[in-house]
Amino acid sequence: MTTDINKKGFATRQIHASDVRIPGINPLATPIFATSTFVFDDCAQGAARFAGKEAGYIYSRMGNPNVNQVAAKVAALEGAEAGLALGSGMGAVATALLSLLEQGDHIVADSALYGATFTLMRDALPNFGIETTFVDASHIDNVIAAIKPETRMVYFETPANPNLKVTDIAEMVKRVREKDPLIIVVIDNTFATPYLQQPIALGVDVVIHSGTKYLNGHGDVISGFIASSDVIIDRCRNIGLKMVTGAVLGAFEAFLINRGLKTLDIRMEKHCKNAMQVAEWLEKHPKVRKVYYPGLKSFEGYEVAKKQMKLPGAIISFELEASKEVTEKFVNSLELITLAVSLGDAESLVEHPASMTHAGYTKADLEDAGISESLIRISVGLEDAEDIIADLEKHLAAV
Ligand SMILES: Cc1ncc(COP(=O)(O)O)c(C=O)c1O
Known about the structure:
CATH architecture of the largest domain: 3-Layer(aba) Sandwich
Bound molecules: pyridoxal-5'-phosphate
Shape: globular
Number of strands: 12
Helix content: 25-40%
Distance between the termini: 56 Å
CATH superfamily of the largest domain: Type I PLP-dependent aspartate aminotransferase-like (Major domain)
Largest sheet: 7 strands, mixed
CATH topology of the largest domain: Aspartate Aminotransferase, domain 2
Number of helices: 15
CATH class of the largest domain: Alpha Beta
């Protein structure tokens, strides 16, 4: 595609951004470049590529056609100048943080984060002299109050894993910039995807994804992405990925994500339609104490979600009017909704955050983050909504 792809609509970009054409063969789908290294014509060319004086591939840790293709596509969907693909979402988080921060720096982060992101900041980064203050970032005054002269980054997820807490992105950027324009604002956009939410357009500096989830969408790949400016992505590639984390994505995985991305919009539409039906049904059920879903008017983040998201997403958390044992029995009994961590797949999945994805949180951390120990998280899949509800109905009857 030769016309400016970035001016095209979302559906066109998710299919055509970063098309790769191979003269003489011209396959429609990009073949898998299963190669660790690339051949140089001569020493001068190898030296020029290492020196950055000549464009071209060197070694698949630094770049590979399939990996670069999918990274460019995610950047095009996020409206970012550049993108970087990594071997996992945590690879993306660690690569971004270890490329952009140094000893003595300070992060202000939301207290509700994916469990391993939280423990990276709480336990691992202090070993490198990087401290984090956790606050309820949905109340932006808390973030502003926690900023110190050493603060270099503000980090949050919206909707947040696992309690779906929503933070006003544009307001966060505005307030942080007013306080200190040099602070890097980072968002994990995994739950929303670029189809539902466009943080770069709202002023965010860096967008992170677990590509394992909706971007790939089929539960068969672990991957991560960073989307940002050319300068930040160069740093993340040439420092973080190349030398610090080495969290490289494989060509086959990149091929699969590129394939999955071609249907991101229609998958998200169906995921969200199903989720809305499930959330409304759960909210009316007498055995359900509370439902956390940005599409429900009763949810605290409803208005902000409506303002900044195209649709409210497809992750629902809820609590039952039941003991821990009964809640566990209910989760174990579900049949169609499968007991497994992860999210964003065609299959509906259920998990218990306090003992699984957020097991690294202590009791006090959970309380601090507003994550109930009895919370059940569902990733609403692409099955028929009636069948997902029937599974819940059958097993709630036994509660
Ligand atoms: C919001 C969020 N960010 C990051 C990650 C980490 O991604 P990965 O499991 O691909 O390393 C996850 C994983 O569940 C997540 O839910």
